[in-house]
Amino acid sequence: MFNRRKFIKTSAISSLALAINKSAACTSKKKPTTVKPVVISTWDAGLRANKAAWDVLKDGGRALDAVEKGVMVTESEQNCCVGLGANPDRDGFVTLDASIMDEFSNCGSVAFLERIKHPISVARRVMEKTPHVMLVGSGAQQFAVAEGFPLEEQKLSTDAEKNYENWLKKSEYKPPAINIESLPAGKVDKQDHGPFAPKKLENGEWNHDTIGMVAMDANGNLSGSCTTSGAGFKMRGRLGDSPIIGAGLFVDNEVGACTATGQGEDVIRVAGSHTVVELMRQGLSPEAACKNAVERIMRIKGEKAKDIQVAFLAVNKNGEVGAYAIHKGFSYAMKTNNREELVNAKYIMD
Ligand code: GLY
Questions:
Q1: Best residue for ligand 1 mutational test, from 235, 263, 312 (most atoms within 8 Å of Cβ)
Q2: Which has the closest alpha carbon to 227: 344, 77, 89, 37?
Q3: Ligand 1: distance of its center to the CA of 99 in Å?
Q4: Residue 336 a catalytic site member
Q5: What is the DSSP letter of 132?
Q6: pLDDT tens track for 58-70
Q7: Which residues contact ligand 1 via a Cβ below 6 A?
Q8: Of the four listed, 39, 169, 233, 350, which is most buried by Cβ atoms within 10 Å?
Q9: What is the DSSP letter of 225?
């Protein structure tokens, strides 16, 4: 039976809730102060990459120049996962993927590129000097050489050489989760980590599969870059998300920018970075948008989500940053005028 007293009480509570919500909405309408410039990038190596990006941003330089210069640092480091010294494919060849995008939605990418030290710079040339967005394989290499990039000899880093030797013993292809906490302290040589194995560098830092970087410059313009050798011991010709605009990287200068790391196949499935930017357009914070995209992948993968790692890292037009990962262990580097730090991202699964 209808209870009038209960109705009045409920209505009063509802009105109060509405009033509180309205006042919260009024408060949240107040535009937060924009933090700029700001640069964020994936994993420990991002700390060094951000420094190079910051050299551009602090002097009022363009975000596009910052994100190119930044990830070039990582491409030059002889490490397991980015650049010429990285883990090879199963046939022993290092093949590199990279993409870049600016504030005007110009974009360029290269994939399956061999023997070129800075794929990110070739991606930028594709963007600026060709009518195309992507060049791959021997065509990308031919373009790079024509643009004056030297053809280098492949020289695996010590880590990559060891990883490949270990992999050859079993030749298994099993993409695992990245969960550095699960590794015994100081031990890095488990042989079955597969394509996205975390590796400890000589300086004691962890380095991982990809560097993705997004930045906003002093003028409030956004750009992003992403570069990788992809999954270690991958099938020859395999591409992940990093060179795919909308998957490994997406920038919309009105809304925000996002980059991804982890198992590229699953990032591509949900057009991951584009999804995150579209969710920010709908009003989600960068962290909430990244979480939503991670959860979407987990719903698709079901039980198998426990076996993969994917993480997103995003910045919005106010300079707010956020990230989310499937598994514990993903960190990102952040630099602003008054902050420089490595942040442990939130995650869904231990
Ligand atoms: N996220 C890097 C790759 O899947 O190739």
A1: 263
A2: 77
A3: 12
A4: no
A5: -
A6: 999 999 999 999 9
A7: 209-210, 228, 230-231, 240-242, 261-264
A8: 39
A9: E
Note the pLDDT tens digit of each residue in 301-343: 999 999 899 999 999 999 999 999 999 999 999 999 999 999 9
Domains of the chain as residue ranges with CATH: 38-349 (3.60.20.30)
- Tokens 């494919």 sit on residue: 89
List, in order, residues 6 or more apart from 100 with CB less than 8 Å away: 64, 67, 68, 107, 108, 109, 120, 123, 124, 127, 223, 224, 225, 226, 249
Q: Closest Cα to residue 81, out of 334, 262, 314?
A: 262
- Which tokens sit at 293? 């995209």
Where would I find the H helices in 152-302? 158-170, 264-269, 272-281, 286-301
**What is the pTM for the complete model shown?**
0.84
Query: What are the tokens at 82?
Result: 């980015």
DSSP 239: -
**330 CA from centroid of ligand 1 (Å):** 14
